[in-house]
Design a protein that fits this description.
Layout: H1 2-31, E1 33-45, E2 53-61, E3 67-71, E4 85-91, E5 94-100, H2 103-129
Antiparallel strand pairs: 1-2, 1-4, 2-3, 4-5
Helix pairs in contact: 1-2
Length: about 130
């Protein structure tokens, strides 16, 4: 029973993270600086009993000539092999805001977070309302 309440509390937090990411994505599209990055490696995340997830690690140079590195927040590296170019979008003065400038990655990451948040909120409500 306590696990249902935990999920019910976590769901809105996850939805909030999705809203924050969607707002950042919108701001990046309006004000962001575009540059080319380079995929330098992939981080592999192992999960018990599941296939490994691959996250591209991208290196880029900002407008001031400083080098930065970030890890994509969405797994999957199709089209992003090591040593390939990757379009990057970041906010001026905030290189930690960098994201891949690929609509599939922008939309996919945000939709995934919202979906998890909605399920983690709706399922416990449904189960609790049915007396579980």
């Amino acid at each position: 029973m306590w696990l249902l309440w935990l999920f019910l509390l976590a769901g809105p937090v996850i939805i909030g993270i999705g809203i924050r990411e969607a707002a950042l994505q919108r701001r990046l599209l309006r004000e962001g600086i575009r540059t080319d990055g380079l995929v330098v490696r992939h981080r592999i995340k192992q999960s018990l009993g599941k296939k490994p997830a691959y996250f591209a690690v991208v290196n880029f140079v900002d407008a001031q000539g400083n080098q930065h590195e970030f890890e994509c927040n969405v797994s999957g590296v199709k089209g992003l092999p090591v040593s390939s170019r990757a379009p990057v979008l970041y906010l001026s003065g905030a290189p930690k805001s960098a994201r891949l400038d690929l609509s599939s990655k922008r939309i996919g990451g945000t939709v995934l977070v919202f979906t998890i948040g909605i399920v983690w909120t709706a399922l416990p409500i449904w189960l609790l309302s049915n007396g579980h």
